[in-house]
């Protein structure tokens, strides 16, 4: 099932005419919204999400949960002035249902364990790319934990989970080196398994640890008991005790990874960008931008109002391991291509299995604009060159589109193919970008 957009349309990336000076209200976090939807659906009482992200990935998650019987009502808050909200009303999960995962890692990985708890067959399908993204960790683990799953033997989509209304659960070993989402998926549904779950990661590396911490924090916030390596448990082992989950009233933080292009604009064009409601404490990997973009030449101040990020127009290269914050790689690579010294981005070989092969895509697209990027075994080596205009292909990858927009600020004549693909997590991107720059550029 292909996303509904014109994949060949070209968007002239606005060129910055001067320093930026803008306040950008960044929509809610994809990762928080989709975890909150899953946890609220598994709870024993209704719950609320305020300021949820409404994007392709989160609407697919909501539609999938509704298809399994969950009530999700949408509204706009008046009394609290809190803006949009979703009220989630859990009910007996059931099939038959067909779930479209699109190309959302969170939907394709977090929902098969939920489906195993449902009564009846739940079929999972998605975009062509979803067939190639790793899912074996979830499928194999669920079988060990007692689920019946029909797939075509590749350990990938499409597949059908024959939910039996309950799952034994218990201990399971997985290799999550290709995606942290395998661990998150099993933990999120773990409280509802008869014996809970004990997940032991056996692989040599584990990406995106902040996202696993986000899972653990959000589980604890709804009353689950979780033991982790960080709370004194064994390394690489997470245990979730069986038990009922509470319905909560949660306000979703802005998506800090989607704040990245706007902060990058201040680095590239100079000037200041303010992101209101930047949380003082968060598990979102995007919070690392404060440190990374400071090292690359900016400065920032976190106040009660939000994050104020200032650039001088000077950009420095960086040598950094992005294994914990892989989803920031495209935006960092774009800034690095405009820097005054080379960069090495390491620890992100698993990006080859993201929305597209991001290492190959970034290398090809930046080089086609005159850049000098080489792929390494686990990342990119970027030597800045004078770039020229041209078409920046995006491979249905939202973060490729925003990376191209960052380059377009500094390089005239960059055209982004299929900017609508940003709808995966940030549907308003072109408007927010134009708003940041002012109608005729900054
Ligand atoms: O759990 C999550 O919300 C995510 C985990 C990460 O996945 P990987 O560990 O597969 O990189 C991240 O890249 C993705 O954007 C969101
Ligand atoms: C890797 C990403 O998404 P997904 O949740 O589909 O894995 C991403 O948003 O950068």
UniProtKB/TrEMBL annotation:
Q: Which family does it belong to?
A: Belongs to the EPSP synthase family.
Please give the Pfam families that the UniProt record associates with this protein: EPSP_synthase
Q: Which PANTHER family match?
A: AROM/DEHYDROQUINATE SYNTHASE, PENTAFUNCTIONAL AROM POLYPEPTIDE
Q: Which domain of life is it from?
A: Bacteria
| Designated name of the protein | 3-phosphoshikimate 1-carboxyvinyltransferase
Q: What keywords would UniProt list here?
A: Amino-acid biosynthesis, Aromatic amino acid biosynthesis, Cytoplasm, Transferase
The UniProt record gives the binding positions of 3-phosphoshikimate as 30-31, 35, 179-181, 208, 327, 354
Record function comment: Catalyzes the transfer of the enolpyruvyl moiety of phosphoenolpyruvate (PEP) to the 5-hydroxyl of shikimate-3-phosphate (S3P) to produce enolpyruvyl shikimate-3-phosphate and inorganic phosphate.
Q: Which GO terms describe its molecular function?
A: 3-phosphoshikimate 1-carboxyvinyltransferase activity
Q: Does the keyword Cytoplasm apply?
A: yes
E.C. numbers: 2.5.1.19
Q: Does the keyword Amino-acid biosynthesis apply?
A: yes
Which intervals hold domain Enolpyruvate transferase?
17-431
> What residues does phosphoenolpyruvate bind to?
30, 105, 133, 181, 358, 399, 424
Biochemical pathway:
Metabolic intermediate biosynthesis; chorismate biosynthesis; chorismate from D-erythrose 4-phosphate and phosphoenolpyruvate: step 6/7
Q: Which reaction does it catalyse?
A: 3-phosphoshikimate + phosphoenolpyruvate = 5-O-(1-carboxyvinyl)-3-phosphoshikimate + phosphate
Q: Which residues form the active site?
A: 327 (proton acceptor)
Q: Which HAMAP family match?
A: EPSP_synth (MF_00210)
Q: Where does the record place it?
A: Cytoplasm
